[in-house]
Each structure stands twice: as structure tokens, then as C-alpha cells.
Amino acid sequence: MAREFLNDFEELILSMIAALDENAYGAAIALEVEKWLGRKVTLSAVHVILYRLEDKGYAKSKVGGATSERGGRSKRIYTITSAGIAVLRSMKETRTEIWKLVPQLKSVHI
Length: 110
Description:
The chain is of the alpha+beta class. The chain contains four helices and two strands; from the N terminus they run αααββα.
């Protein structure tokens, strides 16, 4: 079977799901991306990727409880699956091996 890879934005969103744990919902993920990378993202772009990651089996979601600060609406909370962890781990290992080939990075411990 061919190895599965994610595009940069998918990898970023999946990593944020894992990092945010039980607080991983669309708006929180978008805020974290902006905070860590200074990269402005739209909520709709984040949702497209969240749905795609679910379709690929790398994330799953459930509807959380309604909150008064959201006007009684509930959040869709995302969690990473074991397949999601596996693809992130594989991508990290591959990138680390490739970075070792770059002479300017050889003295840097990754």
C-alpha cells in the first residue's frame, strides 16, 4: 500500500486537533493557527479540512454541549484517531530523514 501524506494545511490542522485535545473545535483551531504561525485562516477553510480529515479517517468528531456564550448552540469537537497519529508520525519521520540530507542542517539537532 502506498504511504499516505497530507498537504501542509491538513497536517497543520490535524496537529492542532491533537494539541488542543478536548478543546479542538473549528474556531479554536483557527485561533491557534493564527497564534502560532501568524497565518490568517478563515473558519470555512478550517471546516473544509476538518471534514476532509474525517473522510480520510484521521479525525472524528462529536457534538459537544450547548453553551450560553454560543447562544445555546453546541460545538463540534474533533479528536485525532490512531490512523491520524500514525500518519503524523510517518510524516515527521520522513521529514526528519530528508532534513538530515541538507548540509546546512546537519549540525542542528532535530
